Amino acid sequence: xxxxxxxxxxxxxxxxxxxxxxxxxxxxxxxxxxxxxxxxxxxxxxxxxxxxxxxxxxxxxxxx
Length: 64
Ligand SMILES: [Zn+2]
Description:
64 residues, 1 helix, 9% helix, binds zinc ion
């Protein structure tokens, strides 16, 4: 049996199809607390708090 690993939403437990879903990553400012991450389905990802972040590689325009 060739079983491919299925991604399951850490919030609601629903299976996440390949190429879908999101990863929620929490990084504590206090490095000793490390970080944690959760795999989320599209639905849950949309309800999570947070603001849209620009893709890496471009510095945000500084306010003048
Ligand atoms: Zn979910």
